[in-house]
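quick one: beta-D-galactopyranose bound model?
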Amino acid sequence: MKKTILSPLSILVCSGALVLSNSLQAAPFEVLHWWTEPGELQSKQVLVDHLKVNDIEFEDFAIVGGGGDGAIHVLQMRALSGTPPEAAQIKGPDINEWDKLSMLVSIDQLVDTQAWTNFLPEVVIDDVSVDQEYMGVPINIHRVNWLWLNSNIFKRFGLAAPKTWKQFFAVADFIQAKGVKPLSMGGTPWQDALLFESVAISVLGPENYIKAFVHFDNSVINSTEMVEAFKLFKRLHAYTSIAQQGQDWFWASQSFINDQAAMFFMGDWVKGSWTAAGKEALKDYQCVPAPGTEGVFSYNIDSFVLFKKVNTEIELANQKTFVNTLISPEFQIEFSKVKGSIPARQNVDLSGFDACSKQSAQDFDNKVKVPSFTQNMATSSHQQGQIIQLISDYFNSESLSAEEAVQQLSVMVKALTSK
Ligand code: GAL
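yep, here:
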């Protein structure tokens, strides 16, 4: 979390190009996010409602595009022009990047955070802290290394959930031979990379996955195991639906839940879209860890940061209320139920949650936790963006070999980490 790599934005700011606005920002409270799919919209509504009860009028700053790539770019432009929103959905090492620009409000200085260590897990605390200071408010935890199975199709063919890649390919071949699409797939680079992430965790193991994608350790990046991971990943291409380029995860989630594809790799925010469509865990779909990753929990923590732009008592009070609302158990429980995640707070009552969330909560406690690099948990988004593009290009290329892709990755990572 405490890397000292300057993003292009930091460089611009250091050279004095950024001018923070001093002008008064009257209520409403503008919040940047990328929750624009049906399930996400419903969970955002939970946030809006909870803020409203506490007299904060949520002003929507929504940028379409799962994964948040578009949102981050728009946010950078807004910040550079001196008009950041009040709050933004910023996660993982990006919190550190924004903090280096001295633009973020210290949550510790805003509200009393002493009790937070009693109910937040260490991994969550680390994720939203910079030098032991809370700079973001965590709200939930998504698991990324899930494989979703369509119950109708699995029942129709009497298939068991695949636990290993060998079993996965046997099941996928069988389904394909029956004329059904084995794997649903969207058409953006981060969705390709999300699939690669699970493959990499299983082939490299959690320790080497962390070495490669958190610490950029070249001995793991440039290894035969990494080549093996790329090769296995590429084999999956033949089983995917041909998504239109740019097609977001929601469309892939729909073709899966509408019985047009048997399996789907995606983080559990996808459940939000199925819940919104009246589908139920274990009845309409099953959740199992991606093959070979049973002992691992690849996490994605949603959090919000606040921008320094307060001028009045009311605005300061609004910031405090925003933080206290987001950290409250009432909000976190209601939000996660709709979102498909589990609350960032521990020891909350999960009785009203679906079976997959209960499984997720149990696994979060018992499995090896690794940060999801495709979900901005491992590196800052400018580094992650380059890596994701390379992985996606490889997946969709007919000519790039696994060895060449690994070589390119190794060169890229050196460039991304050199001072
Ligand atoms: C992630 C975000 C999730 C989810 C997903 C798809 O980056 O953390 O909350 O919504 O994008 O949009």
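The pocket of beta-D-galactopyranose is lined by residues 34-35, 40, 66-68, 142, 269, 300, 302, 375 (CB under 6 Å).
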